[in-house]
Each structure stands twice: as structure tokens, then as C-alpha cells.
Design goal:
Structural class: mainly beta
CATH class of the largest domain: Mainly Beta
Number of helices: 3
Shape: elongated
Number of domains: 2
CATH architecture of the largest domain: Roll
Oligomer: single chain
Largest sheet: 6 strands, mixed, barrel
Helix content: under 10%
Order of helices and strands: EEEEHEEEEEEEHHE
Number of strands: 12
CATH topology of the largest domain: SH3 type barrels
Length: about 170
């Protein structure tokens, strides 16, 4: 049986509530992960990526790791980061991909992989049939000279913006 991911509020089997934003694809490895944010506690301003298969896996007592509680009636609420990243190479805003000039991205933020602890830059496509999809770039790759030339900042913003989500398998 195939599980389908829905954005919205999910409950972790240990009790915490999380806002699931969508599926990301790691640009280097191709791994699909779930992008989510805690709705309480010290990490409320953080974003995390968990491998898609782990998100649905059975844990203690044959219980699912995450259970959907509420589907959003509007685009998911985002608790914005308390501050813009201090590293000037990481700026929230709209970017154009020089390799595909018709493709625009929103730099959504920085996320940490729950298993590898790798930090990634989360980009959300803004146009075409893939609008709303997320991709992840390793932070080190994003900061490289290659990517500073590849992605052109068109419009800076002080907080992340979440375009309308469309969840794809």
C-alpha cells in the first residue's frame, strides 16, 4: 500500500505536533524528503527534512511515525525564522536559474536533515507545471562560486514566503 503525503498538521508518535510543508528533492543525491516544522518547543523557528520512507515507517507497537491531524484550509502557516541568515550568501528572496532562465525559485530557508544532520538550502519553484515543488541544495554547494554565478537574486525579502503548495508523488 502506497502512502500519500498531505500538507498540514501531523502528530509525531512521541507526542509533538508538526506542520508538514511538502516533499523536497535533494539536488545532489535525488533523495526525497519531507520538509516540516515543529509547532511548539525550542525549535519552532527551525525546518527539518526526514527521508520520505522514514516519515511513514512503522515504529513502536506498529504505530506510524507521523499521523495526519488536520488538512490546511488555506496554504500552511509558516512561523518565520527570527532573523535573516547572517551569512550574506544566504538571502531570502526570488532567484533566477541561469541554466534555465524561465525557472524562478524562492529561497525558502535552511533545513537540517534528521538523519545525516546535513544543512541544505531549500528552494521552492515558482513557475510552470512544477510550481510549489521544493528542491534542496547542500549548503556548501550553494555557497560555492558555481552557484553564486548560477542563481541570480532578483528580489530580496526579509522573511521566507511560501507559494501555494502542490504535493507530487
Amino acid at each position: 500500500m502506497t502512502q500519500q503525503l498531505h500538507p498540514g498538521r501531523h502528530k509525531h508518535y512521541k507526542g509533538g505536533n508538526y506542520n508538514v510543508l511538502g516533499i523536497t528533492k535533494h539536488i545532489a543525491s535525488g533523495e526525497l524528503t519531507v520538509l516540516y516544522q515543529p509547532l511548539q518547543g525550542e525549535e519552532i523557528h527551525s525546518f527539518f527534512n526526514r527521508p520520505l520512507m522514514m516519515f511513514f515507517e512503522k515504529v513502536e507497537g506498529n504505530e506510524t511515525r507521523f499521523t495526519l491531524i488536520d488538512l490546511p484550509s488555506r496554504p500552511p502557516f509558516i512561523v518565520a525564522a527570527e532573523h535573516t541568515p547572517k551569512d550574506m550568501e544566504i538571502v531570502f528572496g526570488k532567484y533566477q536559474d541561469h541554466e534555465q532562465p524561465e525557472t524562478l525559485y524562492n529561497l525558502f530557508g535552511i533545513s537540517k536533515h534528521t538523519e545525516t544532520q546535513e544543512e541544505v538550502v531549500v528552494l521552492q519553484k515558482l513557475h510552470h507545471c512544477q510550481a510549489g515543488r521544493f528542491i534542496c541544495y547542500p549548503l556548501a554547494l550553494w555557497k560555492s562560486t558555481f552557484n553564486r554565478k548560477r542563481f541570480l537574486l532578483l528580489e530580496q525579502s526579509s522573511v521566507p514566503y511560501l507559494a501555494e503548495l502542490s504535493i507530487h508523488d
